[in-house]
Amino acid sequence: MTKRRQFLKEVAALSSLSLTSCGWRLAQVRANSTSYAHSDQLYIYTWTQYTDKELLKTFSTQTGMRVLADVYDSNDVMLAKLQAGGGGAYSIIYPSDYMVQKMVDKGLLIEINHDRLIGLENLFPRFSNPIYDPNNRYSIPFNWGTTGFIYNSEKIKEPPEDWDYLWQNQDKLNKRMTLLNDVREVMGAVLRMLGYSYNSKNELEIKQAYDKLKVLKPAIAAFDTDAWQNQILGGDLLLAMCYSADAVKISKENPKLKYVIPRSGSSLWTDTIVIPKTAPNFAGAYAWINMILQPEVSSQISQRLNIATPNSAGFEQLPKIIQNNSNLFPPESLLANCERISPVGEFEEVYDRYWTQLTSS
Q1: What are the Cα distances from residue 184, in Å, to 81, 191, 227, 341, 348?
Q2: Predicted structure pTM score
Q3: Which residues pair with 230 in a beta bridge?
Q4: What is the pLDDT of residues 244-274, one digit of tens each?
Q5: Closest Cα partner for 68 from 31, 32, 33, 22?
Q6: For 69, how many CA atoms within 13 A lie in the half-sphere containing its CB?
Q7: Are strands 239-243 and 177-179 parallel, antiparallel or unpaired?
Q8: pLDDT tens-digit profile of 23-61?
Protein backbone atom coordinates (compact mmCIF):
# COMPACT_ATOMS: atom_id res chain seq x y z
CA MET A 1 0.00 0.00 0.00
CA THR A 2 1.41 3.42 -0.91
CA LYS A 3 1.91 6.20 1.63
CA ARG A 4 -0.96 8.16 0.13
CA ARG A 5 -3.36 5.22 0.20
CA GLN A 6 -2.37 4.52 3.80
CA PHE A 7 -2.93 8.18 4.74
CA LEU A 8 -6.32 8.27 2.97
CA LYS A 9 -7.29 5.10 4.76
CA GLU A 10 -6.44 6.63 8.13
CA VAL A 11 -8.22 9.89 7.33
CA ALA A 12 -11.28 7.99 6.13
CA ALA A 13 -11.38 6.11 9.40
CA LEU A 14 -11.11 9.35 11.33
CA SER A 15 -13.70 11.08 9.15
CA SER A 16 -16.26 8.40 9.95
CA LEU A 17 -16.34 9.81 13.45
CA SER A 18 -18.83 12.53 14.30
CA LEU A 19 -17.43 15.96 13.44
CA THR A 20 -17.21 18.25 16.42
CA SER A 21 -16.39 21.92 16.54
CA CYS A 22 -12.72 22.73 16.84
CA GLY A 23 -11.46 23.71 20.25
CA TRP A 24 -9.09 26.36 21.58
CA ARG A 25 -8.13 26.56 25.18
CA LEU A 26 -5.32 27.75 27.38
CA ALA A 27 -6.19 25.67 30.43
CA GLN A 28 -3.98 22.95 31.80
CA VAL A 29 -4.74 19.40 30.68
CA ARG A 30 -5.05 16.90 33.52
CA ALA A 31 -2.26 14.37 33.93
CA ASN A 32 -4.53 11.33 33.67
CA SER A 33 -4.25 10.36 30.02
CA THR A 34 -6.83 7.56 30.20
CA SER A 35 -9.67 10.07 30.20
CA TYR A 36 -8.31 11.55 26.97
CA ALA A 37 -7.59 8.34 25.06
CA HIS A 38 -10.30 8.90 22.45
CA SER A 39 -9.66 8.38 18.73
CA ASP A 40 -11.95 11.30 17.91
CA GLN A 41 -9.82 13.82 19.87
CA LEU A 42 -6.31 15.13 19.47
CA TYR A 43 -4.55 17.15 22.15
CA ILE A 44 -1.49 19.19 21.23
CA TYR A 45 1.00 21.06 23.41
CA THR A 46 2.54 23.98 21.56
CA TRP A 47 4.02 27.46 21.70
CA THR A 48 1.54 30.30 22.14
CA GLN A 49 1.86 31.63 18.60
CA TYR A 50 1.98 28.35 16.66
CA THR A 51 -1.68 27.62 16.11
CA ASP A 52 -4.96 29.41 15.62
CA LYS A 53 -8.62 28.56 15.22
CA GLU A 54 -8.25 28.38 11.45
CA LEU A 55 -5.59 25.67 11.68
CA LEU A 56 -7.62 23.67 14.18
CA LYS A 57 -10.66 24.00 11.94
CA THR A 58 -8.67 22.80 8.91
CA PHE A 59 -7.64 19.67 10.79
CA SER A 60 -11.18 18.97 11.99
CA THR A 61 -12.48 19.40 8.46
CA GLN A 62 -9.88 17.04 7.00
CA THR A 63 -10.16 14.33 9.64
CA GLY A 64 -13.41 14.73 11.55
CA MET A 65 -11.42 14.97 14.77
CA ARG A 66 -11.81 17.49 17.55
CA VAL A 67 -8.45 19.08 18.31
CA LEU A 68 -7.59 21.04 21.44
CA ALA A 69 -4.41 22.94 22.22
CA ASP A 70 -2.59 23.84 25.40
CA VAL A 71 0.28 26.31 25.23
CA TYR A 72 3.60 26.92 26.97
CA ASP A 73 6.17 29.72 26.85
CA SER A 74 9.42 27.82 27.34
CA ASN A 75 10.96 24.44 26.58
CA ASP A 76 11.77 23.97 30.24
CA VAL A 77 8.15 24.45 31.28
CA MET A 78 7.06 21.89 28.70
CA LEU A 79 9.68 19.32 29.73
CA ALA A 80 8.99 19.78 33.44
CA LYS A 81 5.29 19.12 32.88
CA LEU A 82 5.99 15.96 30.90
CA GLN A 83 8.46 14.63 33.45
CA ALA A 84 5.99 15.35 36.26
CA GLY A 85 3.45 13.13 34.51
CA GLY A 86 1.26 15.95 33.23
CA GLY A 87 1.69 15.24 29.53
CA GLY A 88 -0.21 12.00 29.10
CA ALA A 89 -3.03 13.66 27.16
CA TYR A 90 -0.83 15.03 24.37
CA SER A 91 -0.23 13.28 21.07
CA ILE A 92 1.69 16.20 19.50
CA ILE A 93 4.31 18.43 21.13
CA TYR A 94 6.42 21.28 19.66
CA PRO A 95 9.93 21.25 21.21
CA SER A 96 12.81 23.35 19.94
CA ASP A 97 15.73 21.67 18.20
CA TYR A 98 18.06 21.24 21.20
CA MET A 99 15.17 20.00 23.31
CA VAL A 100 14.49 17.21 20.80
CA GLN A 101 17.89 15.69 21.59
CA LYS A 102 17.22 15.98 25.31
CA MET A 103 13.79 14.34 25.01
CA VAL A 104 15.25 11.50 22.92
CA ASP A 105 17.96 10.92 25.52
CA LYS A 106 15.28 10.74 28.21
CA GLY A 107 13.30 8.20 26.19
CA LEU A 108 10.24 10.44 25.82
CA LEU A 109 9.70 10.29 22.03
CA ILE A 110 8.76 7.66 19.48
CA GLU A 111 10.79 7.22 16.31
CA ILE A 112 8.61 8.61 13.53
CA ASN A 113 7.62 6.14 10.80
CA HIS A 114 8.39 8.02 7.58
CA ASP A 115 6.30 5.53 5.60
CA ARG A 116 3.25 7.11 7.19
CA LEU A 117 4.22 10.64 6.09
CA ILE A 118 3.33 12.47 2.91
CA GLY A 119 5.35 15.50 1.78
CA LEU A 120 8.57 15.02 3.72
CA GLU A 121 10.44 15.54 0.45
CA ASN A 122 9.09 19.11 0.35
CA LEU A 123 11.48 20.27 3.09
CA PHE A 124 14.40 22.55 2.27
CA PRO A 125 17.66 20.52 2.24
CA ARG A 126 18.94 22.23 5.41
CA PHE A 127 16.00 20.74 7.33
CA SER A 128 16.12 17.23 5.85
CA ASN A 129 19.06 15.96 7.89
CA PRO A 130 19.48 18.40 10.80
CA ILE A 131 22.36 18.00 13.23
CA TYR A 132 19.99 17.95 16.21
CA ASP A 133 18.01 14.99 14.75
CA PRO A 134 19.75 13.16 11.86
CA ASN A 135 17.29 12.16 9.11
CA ASN A 136 14.41 13.59 11.18
CA ARG A 137 14.07 10.31 13.04
CA TYR A 138 12.15 11.82 15.95
CA SER A 139 10.98 15.24 14.78
CA ILE A 140 9.56 17.15 11.84
CA PRO A 141 10.54 20.85 11.47
CA PHE A 142 7.67 23.30 11.78
CA ASN A 143 9.23 26.75 11.96
CA TRP A 144 12.67 28.30 12.07
CA GLY A 145 14.21 31.65 12.79
CA THR A 146 16.71 33.69 14.76
CA THR A 147 16.89 35.44 18.11
CA GLY A 148 17.57 39.16 18.37
CA PHE A 149 16.17 42.51 19.48
CA ILE A 150 12.95 44.30 18.73
CA TYR A 151 13.21 47.99 19.57
CA ASN A 152 11.18 51.19 19.35
CA SER A 153 12.81 53.10 16.49
CA GLU A 154 10.91 56.27 17.47
CA LYS A 155 12.66 56.34 20.85
CA ILE A 156 15.92 54.60 19.89
CA LYS A 157 17.23 56.44 16.85
CA GLU A 158 20.38 54.40 16.27
CA PRO A 159 19.64 50.69 15.76
CA PRO A 160 21.26 48.45 18.39
CA GLU A 161 23.88 46.53 16.43
CA ASP A 162 25.08 44.01 19.00
CA TRP A 163 24.40 42.50 22.40
CA ASP A 164 26.78 44.96 24.11
CA TYR A 165 24.30 47.75 23.32
CA LEU A 166 22.40 46.71 26.47
CA TRP A 167 25.35 47.41 28.75
CA GLN A 168 26.40 50.57 26.93
CA ASN A 169 22.88 51.99 27.30
CA GLN A 170 21.90 50.46 30.61
CA ASP A 171 20.76 53.75 32.14
CA LYS A 172 18.62 54.66 29.14
CA LEU A 173 17.04 51.20 29.07
CA ASN A 174 16.60 50.91 32.83
CA LYS A 175 13.47 48.83 33.55
CA ARG A 176 12.40 49.28 29.93
CA MET A 177 13.96 46.16 28.47
CA THR A 178 13.29 42.43 28.82
CA LEU A 179 15.30 39.30 28.12
CA LEU A 180 13.89 35.91 27.23
CA ASN A 181 12.95 33.50 29.99
CA ASP A 182 15.34 30.92 28.56
CA VAL A 183 18.66 30.04 30.17
CA ARG A 184 20.35 28.81 26.99
CA GLU A 185 19.23 31.76 24.87
CA VAL A 186 20.23 34.44 27.39
CA MET A 187 23.47 32.85 28.58
CA GLY A 188 24.26 31.90 24.98
CA ALA A 189 23.83 35.44 23.69
CA VAL A 190 26.27 36.79 26.27
CA LEU A 191 28.70 33.97 25.59
CA ARG A 192 28.57 34.86 21.91
CA MET A 193 29.16 38.53 22.71
CA LEU A 194 32.25 37.51 24.70
CA GLY A 195 33.55 35.54 21.73
CA TYR A 196 32.54 32.08 22.97
CA SER A 197 30.14 29.44 21.72
CA TYR A 198 26.45 29.30 22.62
CA ASN A 199 27.22 25.73 23.65
CA SER A 200 30.25 26.38 25.84
CA LYS A 201 31.22 23.67 28.32
CA ASN A 202 33.80 25.83 30.06
CA GLU A 203 32.61 26.95 33.51
CA LEU A 204 34.95 29.93 33.51
CA GLU A 205 33.23 31.19 30.37
CA ILE A 206 29.80 30.58 31.90
CA LYS A 207 30.90 32.49 34.98
CA GLN A 208 32.00 35.44 32.81
CA ALA A 209 28.59 35.50 31.12
CA TYR A 210 26.88 35.33 34.52
CA ASP A 211 28.98 38.22 35.86
CA LYS A 212 28.02 40.36 32.85
CA LEU A 213 24.35 39.56 33.32
CA LYS A 214 24.58 40.27 37.04
CA VAL A 215 25.70 43.81 36.20
CA LEU A 216 22.75 44.20 33.82
CA LYS A 217 20.16 42.56 36.07
CA PRO A 218 19.02 45.72 37.96
CA ALA A 219 18.01 47.33 34.65
CA ILE A 220 16.07 44.33 33.33
CA ALA A 221 12.29 44.70 33.70
CA ALA A 222 11.71 40.94 33.45
CA PHE A 223 12.88 37.64 32.01
CA ASP A 224 9.90 37.05 29.78
CA THR A 225 9.03 35.26 26.54
CA ASP A 226 5.51 36.52 25.76
CA ALA A 227 4.25 39.36 27.98
CA TRP A 228 6.74 41.84 26.49
CA GLN A 229 4.65 42.02 23.32
CA ASN A 230 1.80 44.02 24.83
CA GLN A 231 4.25 46.05 26.90
CA ILE A 232 6.31 47.21 23.93
CA LEU A 233 3.17 47.93 21.92
CA GLY A 234 1.91 49.99 24.85
CA GLY A 235 5.15 51.95 25.06
CA ASP A 236 6.27 50.58 28.42
CA LEU A 237 9.34 48.91 26.91
CA LEU A 238 11.97 50.31 24.58
CA LEU A 239 13.60 47.01 23.68
CA ALA A 240 13.03 43.28 24.09
CA MET A 241 15.09 40.22 23.33
CA CYS A 242 12.82 38.05 21.24
CA TYR A 243 12.36 35.42 18.58
CA SER A 244 12.13 36.62 14.98
CA ALA A 245 8.65 35.11 14.52
CA ASP A 246 7.28 37.25 17.36
CA ALA A 247 9.11 40.33 16.09
CA VAL A 248 7.57 40.03 12.63
CA LYS A 249 4.09 39.75 14.12
CA ILE A 250 4.53 42.72 16.44
CA SER A 251 6.14 44.95 13.80
CA LYS A 252 3.05 44.45 11.65
CA GLU A 253 0.98 45.98 14.44
CA ASN A 254 3.42 48.88 14.84
CA PRO A 255 5.90 49.44 11.97
CA LYS A 256 8.02 51.65 14.27
CA LEU A 257 9.08 48.50 16.07
CA LYS A 258 12.14 47.09 14.27
CA TYR A 259 13.96 43.77 14.52
CA VAL A 260 17.71 43.30 14.35
CA ILE A 261 20.03 40.28 14.47
CA PRO A 262 23.08 41.14 16.63
CA ARG A 263 26.31 41.55 14.68
CA SER A 264 28.42 39.14 16.75
CA GLY A 265 25.92 36.39 16.13
CA SER A 266 22.75 34.90 17.49
CA SER A 267 20.98 31.58 17.77
CA LEU A 268 19.55 29.86 14.73
CA TRP A 269 16.66 27.76 15.93
CA THR A 270 14.10 25.32 14.62
CA ASP A 271 10.90 24.45 16.42
CA THR A 272 9.65 20.98 15.63
CA ILE A 273 6.76 18.55 15.91
CA VAL A 274 7.23 15.30 17.84
CA ILE A 275 5.08 12.41 19.05
CA PRO A 276 5.57 11.43 22.72
CA LYS A 277 5.67 7.76 23.67
CA THR A 278 2.66 8.35 25.91
CA ALA A 279 0.52 9.68 23.02
CA PRO A 280 -3.04 8.31 23.29
CA ASN A 281 -3.80 8.93 19.58
CA PHE A 282 -0.99 7.94 17.20
CA ALA A 283 -3.21 7.95 14.09
CA GLY A 284 -4.31 11.48 14.87
CA ALA A 285 -0.70 12.55 15.48
CA TYR A 286 0.40 11.32 12.03
CA ALA A 287 -2.63 12.98 10.46
CA TRP A 288 -1.64 16.29 12.11
CA ILE A 289 1.93 16.07 10.81
CA ASN A 290 0.71 15.21 7.31
CA MET A 291 -1.58 18.23 7.35
CA ILE A 292 1.33 20.49 8.37
CA LEU A 293 3.45 19.07 5.52
CA GLN A 294 0.87 20.02 2.90
CA PRO A 295 2.39 22.94 0.90
CA GLU A 296 -0.81 24.97 0.85
CA VAL A 297 -1.26 24.54 4.61
CA SER A 298 2.37 25.45 5.38
CA SER A 299 2.05 28.53 3.17
CA GLN A 300 -1.16 29.64 4.89
CA ILE A 301 0.38 29.08 8.33
CA SER A 302 3.39 31.19 7.37
CA GLN A 303 1.15 34.04 6.21
CA ARG A 304 -1.33 33.94 9.09
CA LEU A 305 1.07 33.29 11.95
CA ASN A 306 4.07 35.24 10.56
CA ILE A 307 6.47 32.30 10.77
CA ALA A 308 9.20 31.01 8.46
CA THR A 309 8.23 27.72 6.88
CA PRO A 310 10.89 25.03 6.33
CA ASN A 311 8.70 23.66 3.52
CA SER A 312 10.19 24.64 0.14
CA ALA A 313 6.97 23.86 -1.76
CA GLY A 314 5.05 25.99 0.75
CA PHE A 315 7.63 28.77 0.44
CA GLU A 316 7.06 28.88 -3.31
CA GLN A 317 3.37 29.60 -2.69
CA LEU A 318 4.13 32.65 -0.53
CA PRO A 319 3.69 36.17 -1.93
CA LYS A 320 7.01 37.68 -3.01
CA ILE A 321 6.81 40.36 -0.32
CA ILE A 322 6.91 37.62 2.34
CA GLN A 323 9.61 35.60 0.56
CA ASN A 324 11.76 38.75 0.53
CA ASN A 325 11.18 39.60 4.20
CA SER A 326 14.71 39.32 5.61
CA ASN A 327 13.40 39.15 9.19
CA LEU A 328 11.58 35.93 8.33
CA PHE A 329 14.04 34.59 5.77
CA PRO A 330 17.46 36.16 6.49
CA PRO A 331 20.17 36.08 3.81
CA GLU A 332 23.02 33.60 4.20
CA SER A 333 25.38 36.46 5.04
CA LEU A 334 23.45 37.07 8.27
CA LEU A 335 22.97 33.39 9.06
CA ALA A 336 26.72 32.75 8.79
CA ASN A 337 27.31 34.15 12.30
CA CYS A 338 24.38 32.31 13.84
CA GLU A 339 24.78 29.11 15.85
CA ARG A 340 22.41 26.33 16.83
CA ILE A 341 21.88 25.62 20.51
CA SER A 342 22.88 22.03 21.27
CA PRO A 343 22.45 19.91 24.40
CA VAL A 344 25.44 20.10 26.73
CA GLY A 345 24.77 16.92 28.67
CA GLU A 346 25.58 16.95 32.36
CA PHE A 347 27.10 20.41 31.97
CA GLU A 348 23.55 21.72 31.84
CA GLU A 349 23.65 21.69 35.64
CA VAL A 350 26.25 24.47 35.46
CA TYR A 351 24.00 26.63 33.26
CA ASP A 352 21.03 26.01 35.54
CA ARG A 353 23.00 26.83 38.68
CA TYR A 354 24.13 30.22 37.40
CA TRP A 355 20.69 30.91 35.91
CA THR A 356 19.03 30.26 39.27
CA GLN A 357 21.49 32.58 40.98
CA LEU A 358 20.78 35.28 38.40
CA THR A 359 17.00 35.11 38.31
CA SER A 360 16.43 34.57 42.03
CA SER A 361 18.72 37.32 43.30
Answers
A1: 19, 10, 19, 7, 9
A2: 0.78
A3: none
A4: 989 998 999 999 999 999 999 899 999 999 9
A5: 22
A6: 21
A7: parallel
A8: 333 333 333 333 445 678 999 999 988 989 999 999 999
